[in-house]
Amino acid sequence: MKYLKDLMMSKSYFDRVPDQSLVLDNGEKYDRVIATRGKDYAMFYSYNARPFTVAVEKLNFKPMKASWFKPSTGQMAGIPEFRYAAKIMLGPPGGK
């Protein structure tokens, strides 16, 4: 949990709001993806690391990069094939 706390504290807190409208294919229970956004970033939490679709056009900024965060180690894995589009499918590196 330390790594997750460090990640959450690394971004501005006071302009962060929950925004479930960013996830287009949300599921129930363990398939649900939690979304939050700030002035120039968005974060998503997938309990089971399933791929999901993000409505990028609903953000107030044009994202330039995306990465996966592994809360058990604190490591970030960049998504090199990330390209700006109105909607993008994000999935964990190496499957799961």
Features:
96 residues, mainly beta, three-stranded antiparallel β-sheet, two-stranded antiparallel ribbon, 1 helix
Tell me what the structure shows:
The chain is mainly beta and 96 residues long. The protein has one domain (2-90). It is 8% helix and 29% strand. The protein contains one helix and seven strands; from the N terminus they run αβββββββ. The chain has one helix at residues 2-9; strands spanning 17-18, 33-37, 42-46, 52-55, 67-70, 75-78, 87-90. The strands form three sheets. Strands 1-2-3 form a three-stranded antiparallel beta sheet, with no helix packed on it. A hairpin with a 4-residue loop joins strand 2 and strand 3. The radius of gyration is 13 Å and the shape is globular. It starts with a helix and ends in a 6-residue tail after the last strand. 8% of the residues are buried.
Query: How widely separated are the two ends?
Result: 20 Å
Classification by helices and strands: mainly beta
Largest sheet descriptor = 3 strands, antiparallel
How many helices? 1
Count of the separate structural domains:
1
Order of helices and strands: HEEEEEEE
Helicity level: under 10%
Strand order of the largest sheet: 1-2-3
- Number of E-type strands: 7
What best-fitting shape do the alpha-carbon axes yield? globular
Mean pLDDT: 87
**Gyration radius, in Å:** 13 Å
Instruction: Report the sheet-strand fraction.
Output: 25-35%
